[in-house]
Amino acid sequence: MMFNKFQKLQNLHTDKTEWTIRARAQSIWEGINRTTNEFKGLNVMLIDDSSTRIHAFLNAKISDFFKEDLKEGNIYRISNFHVKKYEGPEKNRVVRNEKHIYFDNYTKLVAEKTNATFFPTYAFDLYDLEDASRFVTDERFLIDVVGVITNKNVERVYSKDDNTRSHIRFVITDGSCELRVTFFNELAEQLEKQLKHTAEEQVTIIIASAKVNQHEGSTCLNNYPATRFYLNPDHYSVKILKTRLAAFPLNTTSITVEEEYIEEVIDDKIYTISEIKKFTAQCIQKKYKCQVSVKKVEEKTNWYDNVCTSCDEEVNIVEGRYKCDNCKRNIPFPDKRFRLATVCNDSTGYLGIVFPDEEIQRITGKNVFDIENDSTQVGDSISFPPLLKAFEKKEFIVTLIIGETNVHNSCNVYLAHAIDEPPEMLGDHVPGEVVPANSKQDSISMNLEETLNRASDSPATEKSTNKQRPRKKTETVPFETEENVKKRKTVKKDID
Prior knowledge:
The protein has eleven helices and 25 strands. With 496 residues, the chain is of the alpha+beta class. It has four domains: 6-118, CATH 2.40.50.140; 129-259, CATH 2.40.50.140; 265-303 and 339-420, CATH 2.40.50.140; 307-333, no CATH class. The protein starts with 5 loop residues before the first helix and ends in a 39-residue tail after the last helix.
């Protein structure tokens, strides 16, 4: 039997089905329509004995015939299939080929166990981390990358509304570039478990079929149904990376600081706005306090954000539905978070400060839903909630997070971490006139002499005696009660 290589399939006609191949299934995932959540079919990435990859698709109508037999890592002999071209609009492809395999009712799938050593366990199409930004706008392909996890002691973060949903964030580096990665739900759970059972301090990871996104201006990776990860795999790229890092060790200190994202307040000093504007790169992602007055609350900007119920990232409206770019799913009813834009000042200058959701809820005692459904706050004649407008003309001690754009790009908009009222001032605290010590002693002696003189000047009391004084006798006066009082007859006098 003649087995065809994947390279040869690129030259085949698409109207024939008599071809036969032998390949290993590296990954299998379900194809879901992200708009309607409808099951479209099964997708398989296959590898032949020359480490060449190809994408196979099984339509939903026939996927049940193969679903139980297909297992990741097994080797199969596949015959009677179609070779088709991509039509063009297909997104998130795992292989950079023009054609793919298409199963039909006549396709035969037979598992094989012979000559398994000739087939690689996995094959990758690796990109440098710095090249990942090219795929932010090109959604046709998913990419494979290799890097070292900067902090292996990462843990999952659970959704506030649904404990079954979680995500894990970490950073990978190849020695010259760093990239943030976020895994969601099941893949996040798998990564957390494997990292806890990994004894090596330096963990190398290969991420296959990752989705490239952009968050707050930075390129990042997210998982997709086809995404797989491999920790410290026996692959030539891992050996090359370790050799490179051995020659140029990583600066783990700086990476750890960025991983923690925000450091605690350096000191309790209250900085002025002019001092904050002069902060250097050493202050990035650190907290500093300032005492400001809210000069203006911006009413033209939206006072809340619609966020994903799983990852808390802001969602956008796509074709009339809320969609999360991180989770890659539609959100039927997003959560809402305060985001109040203010202009604050002190005697040295002005800053734009965004007040966060947690602090606004703590100060006002209400969340966005409470205000949205209050007719006194939101209505036809009210363009902006009066409760939020009340922040104007008030003083606060604000703890700011110094961002990278605040230092390098001279951005005057800062993010607040905490908002506190200034301490209450009792009196003017102006010191009185200083009195010398000797004058105090003189005043004390004078007061003492006056006290002694008052005792001698007081009038004399009457002389006391032991003679008994006579007691006064009280006479009893007879009286009659109302019961004993008789009615008296009134005598009429003759009128002359």
